[in-house]
Design goal:
Strand content: 15-25%
Mean pLDDT: 90
Structural class: alpha+beta
Bound molecules: iron/sulfur cluster
Oligomer: single chain
Low-confidence stretches: none
Number of domains: 3
């Protein structure tokens, strides 16, 4: 059934979680907008600390260069991120949604703009309900204009990660940038404006799949933002603080709970829900209702924590178990993936050598009686320097490599090259049908630096029978 959207006018709040959230927003915005402008010296390519160069198929993140062929590491990183999300959701609920999701962070900034231009919740509600006047047009217009400006800057900053920022920004403002850059900026301006300014909580409630399946990762030990209904309701439920019912002991004597039904927790909620109704899939665990309720509890002199982070077990008076099989298994998987990632990235060879033997035909007997096998030799240069190399074979007596040893091979930074090479052998030297050997790639500037790859040379058995030479 279609539901009518009820406009939400969140009230501002002060407190520990608000401060944490504001610090994360500030940090995220600073990193996102400043990073493309950070310079970083490297031998080739722009001196930009973080740059994703699509045409060169390479990503530079400070001193780490990742090429398109390193897709395995990217897949492993994504696997790590997915397991980390499962792990953290099982322990701390939707903490990612409340503090780190782009949608939440950008919506928070848009709400601040709205608050700054139109005032606190009552003023915004009054403005929304009022007739269109010059003041209303000005305030609503200015809000949307500032939202559009932040959206445009968001799209612009994103685009600057894909080229040399100082050059690209000039190209964009002089209309000389590639069409893709213009389309990206327009697309991100539109989506940011709609998602963070117009749709807001609707994105979390109806569009985000994570909101729907996150509860499957919860258990009775998961920390969630929860209302202590036993303390808040007692026997007779909530009650407004009348003169007789303002003192806590009086309330308790008469069977009323600590909730004074002020509604502050509902007013600050960015998704417009009442946490007192229990766990709801709309709750993004931002904890602003904790700050709101703690403020009220302080003002009436009751203990804080009527709304708090707690697990179902804790609410039932039992102990919350964090060290349990599920969490330990996720933790171990994370350590394993992180270990492989760190080892893999630190042990990456600068030059990657791959050899594939061509099997159709597996061999050719040439007119002079020699046997020829063919191989595709692929060389990936994973460095930001050009390398001049030579290719040779080892442990294959009487082998002749074509192209030969003298030929130097130059591979540009980040480039990969495939050589079609032939190996010829006189059957007089052959005793084994499949003779294992090695391709050896040598750096001509530093001959100590070599890379090897195993391969096998095939000779048909009927030719071996007549062989008189020797394979070592
Ligand atoms: S109920 Fe509380 S924690 Fe959940 S979204 Fe609303 S304010 Fe945030
Ligand atoms: S802020 Fe606290 S006291 Fe006020 S309605 Fe919410 S739970 Fe009750």
């Amino acid at each position: 059934m279609e539901q009518t959207r009820i406009p939400i006018f969140p009230r501002s709040v002060k407190g520990t979680y608000r401060r944490i959230k504001s610090s994360i927003v500030l940090l995220a915005y600073s990193v996102y907008f400043i990073l493309p402008w950070l310079r970083w010296e490297r031998d080739t390519g722009p001196d930009q600390a973080v740059i994703f160069d699509i045409t060169a198929r390479r990503f530079d993140i400070f001193d780490l260069t990742i090429y398109a062929q390193d897709i395995f590491w990217l897949a492993l990183f994504l696997a790590f991120a997915a397991f980390f999300l499962f792990f953290i959701t099982g322990i701390a609920g939707r903490v990612f949604c409340g503090y780190f999701c782009f949608q939440t962070l950008w919506t928070d900034v848009f709400m601040h703009i709205e608050h700054w231009v139109q005032g606190e919740r009552p003023a915004r509600m009054k403005l929304a309900a009022s007739k269109w006047t010059a003041e209303k047009i000005f305030k609503i217009g200015l809000t949307h204009l500032l939202w559009l400006l932040v959206s445009f800057l968001t799209g612009l900053a994103f685009t600057l990660y894909w080229g040399n920022a100082p050059d690209l920004v000039v190209d964009i403002f002089t209309f000389n940038a590639p069409l893709a850059a213009g389309i990206t900026i327009l697309f991100l301006t539109a989506t940011t404006y709609v998602m963070a300014g117009i749709a807001r909580e609707q994105v979390c409630t109806y569009m985000c799949p994570y909101a729907r399946f996150q509860s499957a990762m919860f258990d009775k030990d998961t920390f969630i933002v929860a209302y202590d209904s036993i303390r808040g309701e007692s026997n007779k439920g909530r009650h407004k603080p009348s003169k007789e019912l303002i003192k806590r002991d009086k309330r308790q004597q008469q069977g009323y709970g600590d909730c004074i039904d002020c509604g502050y927790c509902v007013q600050v909620c960015p998704t417009g829900i009442d946490i007192r109704n229990g766990l709801q899939y709309q709750c993004i665990t931002c904890a602003l209702c904790i700050d709101a309720c703690d403020t009220i509890m302080d003002s009436v002199g009751y203990p804080k924590g009527l709304i708090r982070y707690s697990s179902e077990h804790e609410t039932e008076g039992e102990k919350t178990k964090i060290l349990k099989t599920k969490n330990i298994v996720y933790g171990l998987i994370l350590v394993l993936i992180a270990g492989v990632l760190v080892w893999g990235l630190s042990a990456r060879t600068e030059i990657e050598l791959n050899v594939r033997q061509i099997r159709q035909p597996l061999y050719v007997v040439l007119s002079n009686g020699t046997i020829q096998n063919r191989y595709d030799v692929k060389i990936n240069n994973k460095t930001d320097k050009s390398h001049t190399l030579s290719l040779a074979v080892k442990d294959l007596p009487g082998a002749e490599l074509d192209p030969g040893r003298s030929r130097s091979i130059t591979v540009s930074p980040g480039a990969s090259l495939t050589l079609h090479v032939y190996i010829k052998r006189n059957p007089d030297n052959v005793r084994q049908s499949n003779k294992d050997f090695e391709f050896v790639l040598t750096d001509l500037k530093n001959k100590q630096q070599q890379w090897q790859h195993d391969a096998s040379f095939y000779t048909p058995r009927d030719l071996i029978k007549t062989a008189t030479g020797s394979d070592r």
